[in-house]
Amino acid sequence: MKKVVSLVLAVLLLATMTIGCTKEPAPKTTVRIGAIQGPTGIGMVHLMEADKNETATNDYEFTVSSVPQDIGTQLASGNLDIAAVPTNLASSLYQKTAGKVQLLAVNTLGVLYMLDNGNGINSIADLKGKTIYSTGEGANPEYILRYVLSKNGIDPDKDVTIEFLAENTELVAKMVKGDITLAMVPEPNVSAIISQNQAVKVALSMNTEWEAVAGANNKLMMGCVAVRKEFAEANKAAVDAFLAEYKASIEKAADVEATAALCESYGIIPKAPLAKKAIPNCQLTFVSGADMKAQIAGYYQVLFDANPKAIGGKLPDDAFYYAG
């Protein structure tokens, strides 16, 4: 009996010690993230799924919008902690907020393509004398087009006519109907147009044309993720965990079928079949740290030379780049 009592007491003591040593898991850091519909949001969908399945390191709260400026405003005002935005907007926010926004990583290279319906466009030289339709007046698309034309000896104000439309939906509709026969269009709208009008062809990749005149080391970096500096300083571990998980999410986009389905589920691209066609042409990437700073500097210089207002009035200094 004494042995039994001793054994029971030992078990109870061990149980008590175990309970006493057991700690509650550390609470996850809440990170509010803004994503934009289209290419810059595609790399986020696997992270969205991980958050839904509660397997992400942080507790992510996602906001998805079709308007980059809205996401940028929410980041600057403190309603978001991290946001996927155009690279020129990130620089503008940095200047506008006196350094309160930092660049975390580049997530998208060039997603612009010159679409042609019967104009016989095979090179930039063939654009001379033509009317080119586009969206993005006063933003990345306009400056990219002007730079590539100029570097190929074409005066964008005299040798071509550039007509800007306000919305990509309008551009898609007019190209599908044949009202427009030459346009510079971003994915996934390229795939949407071609799937509805077989006469439309991809004549030129603006990413390729950019590198041909700017050099392979001067990357066309159109999309990025930015962070509020105050949040990054107070939550370095959470930000670094996000970068690791975000990189993994972008890498998983190589599984086009699964990624396309998630794009539809999370409202990044309306329909999975369209996303499936567009994803291979969306130039997803992940560049951070010193590599990011070195590669994007040339692009910012081009934008600044075209119009200083495009990046907030001046080139961003070293403090703009998140070093980890």
Write structural notes for this entry.
This protein is of the alpha/beta class and 324 residues long. The chain folds into two domains: 180 residues, D-Maltodextrin-Binding Protein, domain 2; 103 residues, D-Maltodextrin-Binding Protein, domain 2. The strands form three sheets. A six-stranded mixed beta sheet has the order 2-1-3-10-4-11, sandwiched between helices. Strand 6, helix 6 and strand 7 form a beta-alpha-beta unit. Helix 7 runs parallel beside helix 8 and helix 12 crosses helix 13. The longest helix is centred in the first third of the chain and has 20 residues. The chain is globular and about 70 Å long. About 3% of the residues have low confidence.
What brief labels describe this structure?
single chain, 324 residues, alpha/beta, D-Maltodextrin-Binding Protein, domain 2, six-stranded mixed beta sheet, three-stranded antiparallel beta sheet, 14 helices, 11 strands
